Amino acid sequence: MKIGFIGLGAMGRPMANHIARAGHEVIAWNRTRAGDGVDDCAANLRLAETPAECAEVDILVTMLADDRAIEEVLLHKGVLAALAPATVHVEMATISVAMTKRLEGLHARRQGMFVAAPVFGRVEAVVAAKLFVVAAGDSRAVQYAAPVFDAVGQKTFVVGSKPHLASLVKIAGNLLVAAVIENLAEAIALIRKAGMDPYHFVEVITASVLPAPAYSVYGTRIAARDYTPASFKLQLGLKDINLALAAGEEFEVPLPTASLLHDHLIAALAQGHGGKDWSAIGEVVAANAGL
Amino acid sequence: MKIGFIGLGAMGRPMANHIARAGHEVIAWNRTRAGDGVDDCAANLRLAETPAECAEVDILVTMLADDRAIEEVLLHKGVLAALAPATVHVEMATISVAMTKRLEGLHARRQGMFVAAPVFGRVEAVVAAKLFVVAAGDSRAVQYAAPVFDAVGQKTFVVGSKPHLASLVKIAGNLLVAAVIENLAEAIALIRKAGMDPYHFVEVITASVLPAPAYSVYGTRIAARDYTPASFKLQLGLKDINLALAAGEEFEVPLPTASLLHDHLIAALAQGHGGKDWSAIGEVVAANAGL
Amino acid sequence: MKIGFIGLGAMGRPMANHIARAGHEVIAWNRTRAGDGVDDCAANLRLAETPAECAEVDILVTMLADDRAIEEVLLHKGVLAALAPATVHVEMATISVAMTKRLEGLHARRQGMFVAAPVFGRVEAVVAAKLFVVAAGDSRAVQYAAPVFDAVGQKTFVVGSKPHLASLVKIAGNLLVAAVIENLAEAIALIRKAGMDPYHFVEVITASVLPAPAYSVYGTRIAARDYTPASFKLQLGLKDINLALAAGEEFEVPLPTASLLHDHLIAALAQGHGGKDWSAIGEVVAANAGL
Amino acid sequence: MKIGFIGLGAMGRPMANHIARAGHEVIAWNRTRAGDGVDDCAANLRLAETPAECAEVDILVTMLADDRAIEEVLLHKGVLAALAPATVHVEMATISVAMTKRLEGLHARRQGMFVAAPVFGRVEAVVAAKLFVVAAGDSRAVQYAAPVFDAVGQKTFVVGSKPHLASLVKIAGNLLVAAVIENLAEAIALIRKAGMDPYHFVEVITASVLPAPAYSVYGTRIAARDYTPASFKLQLGLKDINLALAAGEEFEVPLPTASLLHDHLIAALAQGHGGKDWSAIGEVVAANAGL
């Protein structure tokens, strides 16, 4: 298939490459000059001069940073208007429920197909093509886009026909993962001040009641108090928690855990941890414990 | 070995039976008349008339409800005073760090050995002898008590020589598990109000980013909004969160997650959910979302 | 002076009337047909057909609902572009720090003067021309606008030359007032469940440690559990708390009190209290206490 | 009248002196050697060798630090048992609702009269005999104790016949005052990071929407970031917030504001502010804002 790919950031670059390596013809564009990782890819990935060049394709994948980038590129730069009727737009970044709904409306008006398919997985997972894809949209469109999902992910979950529900599952899932960081940070601060080895605590917990990689990975980072390099930058974490709070406001659901994370992420920014891994929430918790 | 066992509640009863079935001679006592589950056990479990009868043993296991019960039975009823010098006291309930430290002091004075060995696992796990045991104390004493741990658990973690650290690991671990409930309750309320099937959300999450039984078990309960019968009663959950807050105060570590849980557990009590499973926190979160 | 006045809502209508009655020639406009209260005013208040008619004046006062209304009317409808160089723009609504900064920039480019002058006071205060005005901007402009402030307020506080600081003082002050509601709601729920008369509690507190009208007014409302008619609607209260959270994010200051209020305001909306007085936060707190 | 007075701390000493100066015969006792302020008082204040000497009086006033001190002195040292039937016990310290209820029961059994009469006011107010007294108990007993209240306070509020309600009003009132500190700390951190003079903010707020001394006094302290000497020590503030949380648990009322204060007070202790004024909560908030 011919695939357009817009957004070649830390996640987008390896994704575009995986799709090209799977045998598809990829025409890709980035707002700034695309970095390495694209240049050295298979012959069938070509860089476009303008985003509109990415519109004449079977599937247009967008992996833009946030709502604002979507608005700028898809709407103001006219990509959406340039899409052929048959082109399926597959939005794979984590954007707001409201923006996904707005895209639903715009695609309905052009009578085109739209799939939201955000992904779970940090940088390590995208490099290994081991993402989890959460897709929602018209079932034919979702099926049509399956080769794209297979190229980047280990598993695809289809959560219905309304694209914004895929955004919401991603946002709610990210809230759960962020909460793991906050919860671990508190438990580990307690363990540390009591004089016990925090690594040992993480081992016990992940070998007993909470045997999930998130607990091992983040627990080890917080135990080490070492938050560079970032697998997922703290300032992006704040963006995602704000998406959760916005969804909570839209559906009228108070999310005190998201509020707590919001406050701790702001504190982390204020204390200079914005560029580190978002598990640097652990430093805010540690500072409050006098550590 | 000859094992004394004090405290035949929902956890204690099956534990005492497991130990007896493993071939040890068990002499057990409960504050109130012991219920079924003890009576129908192997010949080598005998019910004592007084707690002091349980003192002339190789190992005394206590599984009493809380600090107050420990104080009443071990101290006021004179069990501790009646212990032979060689008897190892193994405290397996979830009690406060402060009480465990106090017991450390009392045993040091009698020059006897003391192990704290609280367990992770709900009622289902104790029945299947699949508990996780977290033990701390003098290494010879811990080794001596290993047959008891093996009789009730699937794995034993030794977390050092200071018994109160075992209490702390249990308390911190329970805080993490309780946080899973709160976090899920919020995410599921959001999913539900957006019109998506909450069971499907739980499936996606536990098959992708958070593949741990706690997320499946509690996620399913909250999705079902069915909190009876209780695997772990909400009012006992409040006791455990209060132990976390007390430990936070002792070691000067603020625990905002514990504070949030405390507030939601109190609300659950106020709304009549005290006797249900502690995942009924989900009802407090649902009510705040107008569900 | 000739005064333009845009925004004739619950606050704007009586303000425009006060200014007209003080002897100024007022030309006023509203996005929807202006309601009563304007029609029956002194001869020197005239309703404009278009917002641009309000631009040829000595002072343009805007009292628009929120950032979006400002953007729509001042920017998209061209009012700002139509302003004469000498006209002073006085923004009196509660808007975001970011929007006030943006207006600062736009006025700087047109080399015109701009004052932010939001007001404290509920509906009762505006009717009695007893508002507190918090003004910031070029000192000559602030002085020039003094007659407007005197017409609507009992006192004007000048907080510097940067208009956005006036917005911030208003936002921070509103946060303090909202916090009074939350705090009282909790204390009163406690008093009520203990079986004591909540009115008596409010009397004691306001006659001793906290003798401020906010405590009497909101304390009495919460004691009465009667939140209609609204002096300040709950859904507007959420708007204001969101302005506080946005300011907290801009200046990197975590505001846990604002987060708590945000969560309780969302719960109040979810439970159907959006159109009531914002002290209906008391009902969320009461429900959590099983009242 | 003959007045026994137990508890000569920072509050008790000046209170005992005021009572003596009002013409009553005072026999006073302290757990440790009473400091200055008692020694140099009027001839009619005498120091007892044992607490029991304070029992043969018309009114016994207790001003002990906390529940534990009450238990130790009144119960274990036998003061309560030594009281004559006609002696009225007036408890004036801030103690738990549970302990006040327990004292109600003990006095009922001895058929003696008991008044709880905690006071509002920091050290400055006690020196000036300007406390606010909140009294509850049998109306004859309250009236009988009026001369004591008049000697130390500027006003007495009678809140009913159940002594524990006076404790609760004090606890709930203290929660409101502590909340003022937290709320101000957040607002001031925001103002400070925006580059505005925090003193000016406090002036505006207290001259407009929140004209109460608590806002001026604590606002000025937080603006100054100077928390010594303490008017009310932070570690005692934690004690009082814990009393609020205990009352919330007893009456099943979640108190998220108290939980937030609890967490910030623990952080303040961990960061070394325990001996400073409790408005040093401002430092925790400032640190979280990177100040």
Features:
homotetramer; 291 residues; alpha/beta; Rossmann fold; N-(1-d-carboxylethyl)-l-norvaline Dehydrogenase, domain 2; 2 domains; nine-stranded mixed β-sheet; 14% strand
In short:
The structure is a homotetramer of 291-residue chains. By secondary structure, chain A is of the alpha/beta class. Helix content of chain A is 51%, strand content 14%.
Description of the structure:
The structure is a homotetramer of 291-residue chains. By secondary structure, chain A is an alpha/beta fold. Chain A has two domains: 2-161, NAD(P)-binding Rossmann-like Domain (Rossmann fold, 3-Layer(aba) Sandwich); 168-288, N-(1-d-carboxylethyl)-l-norvaline Dehydrogenase, domain 2 (Orthogonal Bundle). In chain A, 51% of the residues lie in helices and 14% in strands. Chain A is built from 13 helices and nine strands. Chain A has helices spanning 12-21, 67-76, 79-82, 97-110, 123-127, 139-144, 146-152, 163-193, 198-206, 213-224, 234-250, 256-270, 281-288; strands at 2-6, 25-29, 45-47, 59-62, 88-91, 113-116, 119-120, 131-137, 153-158. In chain A, strands 1, 2, 3, 4, 5, 6, 7, 8 and 9 form a nine-stranded mixed beta sheet that branches. In chain A, strand 5 (88-91), helix 4 (97-110) and strand 6 (113-116) form a beta-alpha-beta unit. The longest helix of chain A is centred in the middle third of the chain and has 31 residues, at 163-193. The radius of gyration of chain A is 20 Å and the shape is elongated. Chain A starts with a strand and ends with a helix. The model of chain A has no long low-confidence stretch (mean pLDDT 94). Chains in contact: A-B, A-C, A-D, B-C, B-D, C-D. The interface between C and D is large, with 62 and 62 residues.
